[in-house]
């Protein structure tokens, strides 16, 4: 009877989408300001949509080809199904749609925030954060609705209708087909994150190098042909890219937990599928609590702290989720011992599962906090870079690189403790559930993240429209908070990607029909080395791509200044769309190579060397990717705020230094180096580590040892243990029978 | 009877030391030039010895304390022995002595090379390369003599006199005690490489920032108080540091091969110890062939290529070693199958072992070649950085970072193929033997490496003494070749460190009494993450240390310019020794923290979480350390040569750019960032990955599972395999009996 509980999940998704629609309508209803502002906002919106259209065109080819391959491969091995192609397409389409929703609302909310800032900071925050909420709730709602509905369908088709075992091959097939959804979502994320990252930095660097440095006009000046592309970039990279990234993590953690949950034989009231169902319900519940919490993000007067308001909403969502998880887990999971007999099998209770949820939330919070410490103004790391700027460009760079490397220590220790702790709490299921717990409040996290670029854009529009100083001051307050949330959001994103990858890794090993990944074997160790190298070449390609695309942008802006007379005197309008086109084309072109590496590397290694070597490769990619991600994000963030600190003036060796000083110039160099670090290659690591893991998960049944389809080790291996004592020595006799 | 063959090894070492003494006497006999030159050379020699003395003082404390701890720990578990403390002290003393020998000859050969350059390039090469040979042959000779003699002693004490099994616990104890030698050697290497790296770059950066930039005097100008420290640094970092590093690798690879060789039951004519003895004999033989090859490094007229002469010597040593290895292996190892039953046991023949030697030599050659490509002038990588210098400091940095990351790809693929290939050839023994094969020609490699800083110093002395232009031109030719050999030497050093670490890793697992390192276990995976983070914090500390020490140097030089009147007019001499003292103190102070991490991290993890988690930690350190090492070495080398290219002029976008242009200034920024990368943190990775592995090897018996001393898995595990067919399905029945 209680199996109908499964319908609660898509219902929660639908509630989310309804709330999103209401909030979206409210934002649209707000005043969009005068015709000048509308026109500028129109340029940005048009540019953003131009990017989406160009991206979708390429993606359409990719999705069709990949779907055909998936459908074909689904017919090859027993228990697989070509239906996986359908769920892949749905995942891709929903992820793309989530990106569209975010971009659409962000390009509406930006100008309306500017207009609201004419009245008060309170109103401006309200509009910008509601815009962010639409994105956050929309992404989570689509994910919950999509995963929930597809699970119901596949569960009925592959398990209920066949009378299959919920712990056996039937359910495994249902989940394998569902994994297509995750692959679709993450594939889109690759293009959105990497392409978006290249887009935004090419525009940013290009606009700065010619506009600020050569022509001497301020940032966000309407005379700069690249300024619209720059503002579009904020939406493309930070809204659509971040949204697709978290959509992918969200979906993948749920999936991985479900895959591992299948192997737990559970005597519950949900037909034995409670461990499979639980991650879906936690996600849905987190969505509802995130919605409730958005209403607490408010200030009552202009002197109130915006950061405090955001923190309040965030903590309410987390605490509500923790509390409700306790009751939910207690309700759904059975009493007594649960066992997942893989990866050093341990028995655990339902309270262990709750413990894992708590650990996941703590890991996420700590990772964000450390990121903030390393990138915030006024703290030791940024101050040390400021000091080192006084001796020139080189020492500024050395300082930032050193800080970035140092900043990996605590997050890695937290992550390692999280892995170990959640494993002790509930085995490998615990590791996956910790990831799911951390992602439960994705809607809220993303609302806070998406608020940043909206505020940034609002400031840009205020500047470009020449609005009064107090308006710009209000948007500046929002923008400053947005910079902090951007940094903490990156900490959360990499943490989520790391835990997601580990959860997928755990799920992969089961599907691949192996019981261990032994790096003491030479080939597995070789796989580990090659895997760890991939984030380096991926980063190198991403950074180099920004450099190339920025050069194209520089040449185009120079051309317009030269060939279009009257730009400087506001008599002629620059051809904004040309710059938008350059960024769009470059980002599409440059993401092919990194994308190919992420998709092909696991396939080549998996098919050529088998599942255990692929496991080594995945571990290498994950470990090195997380480190390179944290290093690059934090170095970039610290450089950025070191530079920003000069705007208010900083004291170096007892002397105040301001904008325009030599030390400030050195800090600008660091900021420019940090741009591709923190907005292109750093965040791309998230996608790289998740996507390679999902690809491995999908091909796992095809490369499993012996070529046959081995779903769970416990179905194929019988282990008998016998302990005797001979001459006072303990002799353990283990008989392993392998059915190949 | 043929067991007495063992005495051949120390004999080879003695031959090496005799040749060294003859060559050293020849160098000392050469003309040291006029009084001015002698005085400058005296300052450098005095500074170098001041550093050694200060370093030795600290080391003495460390060695005594560590020896006491080792002796005490040797009494704790069965089969261990406090004698390990003795071999530890001998290893430390010999390594320190090798450093002394190198510094001593280098500080004599430098000025004599300058003097010889007055006559001809041929003579200058002869003096400088003979100086390098003294270092190379001395290091290898001490290692071969030390390891060879100690092995004879311990073999007789622990095996022959007790009548113990050469494949069993008796021999294991002998080798464990011998491991103390390797630990001693590598500990000294830590201080020499990290301390030396900090020393040389603090002096270099400090001298450049005030001298070249602020005071506008040329490099190596006698008026610069830091110039002597700068020249001392070349000896401290590149001679003593590199020497200790390779001494450590050389010893560790031999040791690891011996440890693995013990587990091979061999029916040979050497009392069953041929697989243990082989790596020692290969090392001794490689030393002799290196000596022979040094006589081929000659040019007959000034227009001959110095690089070609060095290459000729290098290739002769390699080819002779390959050829002789074939006959040696054929002579020593028995016919038929050899089996090392760990790490995926495979059977192999003696020709497989020869194959592994060849693979090792190929890996070393390829790694050096790739390093040269990525750091050489006129090739694509350096040219791309030059081009990106035209758009400013930031794009120069971005270019270098991107190139450095890209440069990891081929070396890692080569390394992975090497691991896999040598394993297929001869199991884990093959992996270790490949490392030993690669290191066989260490004497020659080091001779070529040490030649570089001697030539560099010779140029410095020529400049400081105001010698005629043609003298400086000749030393410049040598110096340019020295820059290339420095880069390829770094490639060789990191490759050797990587293979050494892997060999130690393989040996460690056996001693720790475990059979696998399964990263699918949550705690092992956590260890992998923490391990991979350590190279990041180690690099961060090293880079930051250089920054701090350079600031001290800058302040001291500024003080001298201010307080000592007449320096600029050559009327007063700067206080060189103050700058030497600053670099010395800073390097000693700053190496404590990284050193503590390298020594303590494996101990803490090993004792707290057991051998398998420590295995994960080691794998993480090795993988990430190799990547960070290659990345930093090559980025630094490429930046350096991009800057140097401006001296002759480079064409950017159809325009010639020279020294003093904006693009050149940007390239100087890259070079300064690259300095600590390529000379401090990058090469430190070698020591980090080897030292942590040796520490693990030493503590392995103390942390082995169950607390008991489990030397070899095969003594404790019986495996029976039975294959039957039921219903057409293959059923493998494996019976494992574990004697705990």
Automatic annotation (TrEMBL), chains A, B:
MF (Gene Ontology): diphosphate hydrolysis-driven proton transmembrane transporter activity; inorganic diphosphate phosphatase activity; magnesium ion binding; potassium ion binding
Residue ranges crossing the lipid bilayer per the database entry: 6-27, 58-77, 83-103, 124-155, 239-260, 272-295, 315-333, 353-374, 409-436, 492-514, 526-550, 591-610, 616-635
Activity-regulation annotation: Requires K(+) for maximal activity.
Keyword Magnesium: yes
A cellular component term, taken from the record's GO annotations: endomembrane system
Keyword Metal-binding among record annotations: no
Cofactor (UniProt): Mg(2+)
EC number: 7.2.3.1
GO BP annotations listed: sodium ion transport
Membrane topology: Multi-pass membrane protein
Record-linked NCBIfam families: PRK00733.2-4, PRK00733.3-5, V_PPase
UniProt-recorded name of the protein: Putative K(+)-stimulated pyrophosphate-energized sodium pump
């Amino acid at each position: 009877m209680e199996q109908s509980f499964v319908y609660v999940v898509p219902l929660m998704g639908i509630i989310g989408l309804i709330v999103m629609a209401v909030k979206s309508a409210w934002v649209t209803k707000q005043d969009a300001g005068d015709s000048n502002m509308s026109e500028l906002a129109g340029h940005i919106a048009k540019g953003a949509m131009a990017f989406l259209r160009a991206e979708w065109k390429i993606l359409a080819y990719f999705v069709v080809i990949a779907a055909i391959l998936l459908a074909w491969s689904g017919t090859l091995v027993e228990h697989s199904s070509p239906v996986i192609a359908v769920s892949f397409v749905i995942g891709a389409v929903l992820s793309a749609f989530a990106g569209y929703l975010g971009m659409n609302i962000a390009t509406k909310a930006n100008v309306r925030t500017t207009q609201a800032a004419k009245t008060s900071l309170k109103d401006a925050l309200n509009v910008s954060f509601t815009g962010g909420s639409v994105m956050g709730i929309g992404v989570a709602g689509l994910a919950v609705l999509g995963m929930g509905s597809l699970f119901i369908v596949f569960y009925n088709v592959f398990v209920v209708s066949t009378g299959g075992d919920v712990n056996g091959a039937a359910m495994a097939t249902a989940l394998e087909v569902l994994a297509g959804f995750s692959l679709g979502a993450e594939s889109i994320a690759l293009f959105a994150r990497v392409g978006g990252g290249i887009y935004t930095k090419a525009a940013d660097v290009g606009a700065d190098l010619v506009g600020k440095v050569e022509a001497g006009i301020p940032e966000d000046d309407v005379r700069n042909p690249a300024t619209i592309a720059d503002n579009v970039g904020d939406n493309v990279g930070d809204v659509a890219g971040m949204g697709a990234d978290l959509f992918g993590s969200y979906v993948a953690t749920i999936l991985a937990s479900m895959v591992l949950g299948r192997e737990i034989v559970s005597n519950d009231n949900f037909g034995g599928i409670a461990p499979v169902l639980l991650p879906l319900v936690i996600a849905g519940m987190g969505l509802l609590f995130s919605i409730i919490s958005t209403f607490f993000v408010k200030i009552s007067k202009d002197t109130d702290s915006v950061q405090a308001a955001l923190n309040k909403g965030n903590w309410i969502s987390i605490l509500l989720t923790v509390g409700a998880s306790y009751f939910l887990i207690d309700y759904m999971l059975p009493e007594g011992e649960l066992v997942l007999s893989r990866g050093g099998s341990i028995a655990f209770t339902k309270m262990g599962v709750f413990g894992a949820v708590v650990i996941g939330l703590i890991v996420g919070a700590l990772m964000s906090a450390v990121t903030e410490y390393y990138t915030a103004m006024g703290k030791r790391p940024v101050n040390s870079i400021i000091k080192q700027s006084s001796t020139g460009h080189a020492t500024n760079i050395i300082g930032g690189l050193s800080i970035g490397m140092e900043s990996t220590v605590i997050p890695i220790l937290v992550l390692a403790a999280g892995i170990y702790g959640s494993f002790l709490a509930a085995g490998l299921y615990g590791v996956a559930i910790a990831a799911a717990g951390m992602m439960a409040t994705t809607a809220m996290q993303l609302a806070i993240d998406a608020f940043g670029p909206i505020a940034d854009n609002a400031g840009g529009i205020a500047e470009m429209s020449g609005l009064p100083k107090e308006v710009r001051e209000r948007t500046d307050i929002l923008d400053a908070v947005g910079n902090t949330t951007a940094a903490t959001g990156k900490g959360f994103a990499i943490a989520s990607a790391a835990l997601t990858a580990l959860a997928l890794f755990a799920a992969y090993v089961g599907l691949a029909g192996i019981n261990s990944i032994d790096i003491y074997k030479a080939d597995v160790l070789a796989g580990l080395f090659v895997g760890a190298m991939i984030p380096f070449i991926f980063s190198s390609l991403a950074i180099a791509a920004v450099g190339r695309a920025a050069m194209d942008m520089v040449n185009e802006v120079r051309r317009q200044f030269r060939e279009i007379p009257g730009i400087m005197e506001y008599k002629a309008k620059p051809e904004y769309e040309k710059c938008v086109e350059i960024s769009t084309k470059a980002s599409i072109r440059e993401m092919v190579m990194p994308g190919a590496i992420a998709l092909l590397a696991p396939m080549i290694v998996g098919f050529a060397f088998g599942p255990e070597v692929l496991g080594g490769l995945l571990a290498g990619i994950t470990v090195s990717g997380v480190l390179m991600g944290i290093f690059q994000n934090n170095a970039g963030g610290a450089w950025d705020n070191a530079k920003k600190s000069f705007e208010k003036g900083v004291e170096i060796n007892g002397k105040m230094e301001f904008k325009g000083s030599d030390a400030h110039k050195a800090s600008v160099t660091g900021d420019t180096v940090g741009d591709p670090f923190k907005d292109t290659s750093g965040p791309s690591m998230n996608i790289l580590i998740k996507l390679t893991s999902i690809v491995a998960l999908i091909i796992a049944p095809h490369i499993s040892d012996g070529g046959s389809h081995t779903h769970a080790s416990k179905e194929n291996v019988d282990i008998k243990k016998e302990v005797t004592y001979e001459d006072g020595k303990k002799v353990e006799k283990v008989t392993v029978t392998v059915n190949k």
